[in-house]
Write a structure and sequence with these properties.
32% of the residues lie in helices and 25% in strands. The chain is of the alpha/beta class and 449 residues long. The strands form five sheets. Strands 1, 2, 3, 4, 5, 6 and 16 form a seven-stranded mixed beta sheet that branches. The protein has a five-stranded antiparallel beta sheet with strand order 17-18-21-20-19, sandwiched between helices. The protein has a four-stranded parallel beta sheet with strand order 10-9-8-14. It is globular, with a radius of gyration of 23 Å.
């Protein structure tokens, strides 16, 4: 007979760990199945390692500008193995003892994959279990290229640990991953070309903010080719011929490395979902209700596996929300309104709430207020004056429904605007709130007028 387990969580990334911890603290018996390291994509293959590289790249850019501040620095040299060592040090320091954290809460961790044998039974490393509830938190994986020679390309995981700093890099795609790596490697001196299938780059972000980032990246030497269709890769890693088309014209370029950054798909296709009675739509994505419950009432999907916004803060909200649904017995809809997110490109972009386009599409009468960094004291002192803060508010009430920032420390500056969106604070409240001077936070106050 199968072993009965109250709750099985498949995956120990941000969403799975958040759910497991909340349930365990409430006294529920939880088993987590994770064949890889606890911590998931964000800790080991995404946010943390990428931001460590981003910081190192920012140091390089800062050294390149040191002379204008009266600081004489001899020609800096990038020690690439040392950069990678710092990346690993950052990850390991932040991670701590992830396995121990789960164990301290009484959570059983099984280092094995899980697969459904039926609607409520699973095989976990050869162990057959029957669960009252299953939470699928398997994350997402990069979508591979499908052109001839696709095997020559790297994914984001590979780009985090190139053994040598590439002299040239072609990035296929123009979303978060693409433009974060474009800024990182261009800062280290790599010749970067971005091939975008569409005419728009960084589609989720405010257009004015994106324009600032594109100008800054081009200033670092990044070349953008929009309306481009990749047709093939040939050669060997270290010397790849990239063939692409723009309209009816064909082109080639040479690059040491090619990064496929065309998106990510949920990583649940080897779980036996059909056996579990979990319905997928015509795009192969799991069908969920507003509380993230699948067509099998015992099975929930959270985080990137839920096929919605793929952001770490949202994954945390998903995990805790599903835990509440199980504990309370009522469907709890995850509240992600106003959740901020950022793209760590050059400069940083961050936003919360609605864009102007989204507000317009929703039929909301709104007004936009904005300010640049041009006359901001902190930006003048650091000579980082390429920046913008835009606030979107309902016309009748003044309630803030969106915030958008491009510039130095955008990922930090977005937080008060995220709070404003969640609490429906008004422009007047921002106007009457003072900020430190001289500080970048003044820009948020100024933008409200």
């Amino acid at each position: 007979m199968p072993e009965r387990i109250e709750i099985v969580v498949i995956g120990a990334g941000t969403a799975g760990s958040a759910a497991a911890r909340a349930l365990a603290r409430a006294g529920r018996k939880v088993l987590v199945a994770e064949p890889d390291r606890v911590g998931g994509t964000c800790l080991w293959r995404g946010c943390m390692p990428k931001k460590a590289l981003y910081h190192a790249a920012a140091v390089v850019r800062g050294l390149g500008r040191a002379a204008q501040f009266g600081v004489n620095v001899s020609a800096p040299m990038v020690d690439w193995p040392a950069v990678l060592a710092w990346k690993w040090h950052s990850q390991e320091t932040y991670a701590g003892d992830q396995d121990g954290i789960l164990s301290s809460l009484g959570i059983e961790l099984v280092k094995a994959p899980a697969r459904f044998l039926g609607p409520d039974t699973l095989d976990i490393g050869g162990r057959e279990v029957e669960a009252e509830h299953v939470i699928v938190a398997t994350g997402a994986v990069p979508i591979p290229l499908t052109v001839p020679g696709a095997e020559l390309s790297d994914t984001s995981e590979g780009a985090l640990r190139f053994q040598e700093l590439p002299k040239s890099l072609c990035i296929v795609g123009a979303g978060y991953v693409a433009l974060e790596f474009a800024g990182i490697y261009a800062s280290f001196g790599t010749d970067v070309t971005v091939l975008s299938r569409g005419e728009t780059i960084l589609a989720p972000f405010d257009r004015d903010c994106v324009a600032i980032a594109r100008t800054a990246l081009e200033g670092l030497g990044v070349r953008f080719v929009t309306g481009a269709t990749l047709t093939s890769l040939a050669g060997d890693r270290g010397d790849i011929t990239v063939s692409y088309a723009v309209g009816d014209a064909s082109f080639i370029l040479r690059a040491e490395r090619v990064l496929a950054a065309i998106g990510r798909r949920p990583a649940y296709y080897d779980l036996g979902l059909e056996t579990a009675g979990v319905e997928l739509d015509d795009r192969g994505r799991v069908v969920l209700d507003s509380a993230l419950r699948s067509s099998n009432a015992k099975v929930f999907f959270v985080g990137d596996a839920a096929s919605r916004e793929q952001h770490t803060p949202i994954a945390s909200v998903h995990g805790r929300s599903v835990a509440r649904t199980i504990l309370e017995g009522n469907s709890v809809v995850p509240d992600t309104d106003g959740t901020p997110f950022a793209c760590f490109t050059v400069p940083e972009l961050a936003q919360t709430g609605l864009t102007e386009e989204a507000a317009r599409a929703a039929g909301i009468a709104f007004e936009s207020h904005s300010t640049t960094f041009e006359y901001l004291g902190a930006a003048i002192i650091s000579d980082t004056r390429q920046g913008l803060v835009k606030i979107i508010a309902e016309k009748d009430t003044g309630a803030i429904i969106g915030g958008h920032i491009a510039g130095e420390r955008a990922s930090d500056l977005i937080y008060p605007l995220a709070l404003a969106v969640r609490s429906r604070s008004t422009l007047e409240q921002l106007q009457t709130s003072a900020a430190v001077h001289p500080a970048f936070s003044e820009s948020v106050n100024w933008a409200a007028f």
